[in-house]
Amino acid sequence: NVLILDFGSQYTQLIARRVRELNIYCEIYPYSKIPEDLSGFKAVILSGSPFSVRAEDAPHPDLSQIRGKLPILAVCYGAQYLAHFFGGKVEPSDTREYGRANLSVIKDAETLFEDITENSQVWMSHSDSIIKLPENAVRLASTSDVLNAAYRIEGEETYAIQFHPEVYHSTDGKQLLENFLVKIAGTKQTWTPGAFVDLTVDELKEKIGDDKVVLGLSGGVDSTVAAVLLHKAIGKNLYCIFVNNGLLRKNEFESVLDQYKHMGLNVKGVDASARFLDALKGLSDPEEKRKAIGNTFIEVFDDEAHEITDVTYLAQGTIYPDVIESVSVNGPSVTIKSHHNVGGLPDFMKLKVVEPLRMLFKDEVRRVGKELGIDKELLGRHPFPGPGLAIRILGDITAEKVRILQEVDHIFIQGLRDWMLYDKVWQAGAILLPIQSVGVMGDERTYEQVVALRAVESTDGMTADWVNLPYEFLQKTSNTIINRVKGVNRVVYDISSKPPATIEWE
Ligand code: XMP
Fold this sequence. Notes:
Elements: E1 2-6, H1 12-21, E2 26-30, E3 43-46, E4 72-75, H2 77-85, E5 89-105, E6 120-132, E7 137-142, E8 150-153, E9 158-161, H3 173-184, H4 193-208, E10 212-217, H5 221-234, E11 238-244, H6 252-262, E12 267-271, H7 273-280, H8 286-307, E13 311-315, H9 320-323, E14 325-327, E15 334-336, E16 352-354, H10 362-371, H11 376-379, H12 399-418, E17 427-441, E18 444-457, E19 465-466, H13 471-484, E20 488-493
Helix pairs in contact: 4-5, 4-10, 5-10, 7-8, 12-13
Xanthosine-5'-monophosphate is lined by residues 290, 340, 383, 385-387, 427, 461, 498, 502-504.
């Protein structure tokens, strides 16, 4: 197990993902909450930070429990922190670097740089520089602008690097992490999907015994993988509920329900479309729509859960990014991200919560899903928001608007599949705009709806850019939509990035 101490860098989660990609397990802790018992950890990585070490309110944790006892890799802020407090000097300098730099390794006999090519590209992002190393430190590498790009503290397995090995643009970053974790710290690369499945199934069996578990399936990757894992552990005692809120994609409810049944899951499909539409009647504010949908879901789910006698557990598909306590950038205080999946349903459910995926990143969930034999198409599905098409119909919702959007969305998504573009896109969908525009069809003047198409690439939804879809594809899709979907006479393509726009329009 590897401990990653978070100083608030935007890249901390990326460090964890890279480590996990090496099949090594790791956990992120805020710098202010270093675990008291370190016996389970074999190595420590100190993250970067938006702070300057010279700032009064910068993170200044006591590392005496760790230094000299466990191998340390200090990244960026971590490297400056060690330098600043142990006899070196950190200052704002004219040689600050952002972006690409090339690493010149001085001590290439060092294990840390084994199998790393000379002049390897590394990613820099710092405004302070280490201008003097601590007394007992040896310089390991430089770049053209930064003398102390890497150093080691003599007599300890403590390494410090100014660049970010976790970033994709650091070409040999993964090799460096592997050198540190495997060759220096001796961690084992045993964190594989197969090992996770075996371990988790055993743990679930042990924890749940003969008790019953209820789980809400959404058609998404997380809840599906959670369900299959639990099913493997406790079989028929897992009761799945799949609610149709009437705001899913065209035919989605029927086809996904069918797939679930084929997978052997004990699943009940509940069509509550009318109840949701009713709750949404007259609402046009996005947050009010979200609230109405959330509350209705809880009511429907609760009614269904009551049909099952003697349930003890509520299972959820919560994943690691929803759980990690992140360090607040605005001050030394520690905040916990609030998220719709964390905390679960309200108290009245009175069920114990089980979350078999709470330590996994999204890509790991997919790998586990693959290991469990879940259909590739299901695992590769784009993310889809819980409130569904309700937040892609701007303004108030009617059954007719849902029908129109379902048709448009279906043509767009099916088109992406047919043109082999689906897997190149992170998320895609159509938005029904609350305006009408003039058109002409045959000899008739029309005055009909406008739809926007949106397709983005992203890794986590936090930032995103629009996808440069082929003009020919857009042309064909637009034609098909206008010819086939009654009520639509204009199609536009959204070319906004996030930030400053968001992925959804509401
Ligand atoms: P935005 O629009 O904030 O979306 O750029 C980022 C990601 O979050 C999804 N999203 C939601 N998911 N409930 C959800 O479950 C919501 O209310 C919600 N709003 C946005 C969005 O689809 C995208 O993947």
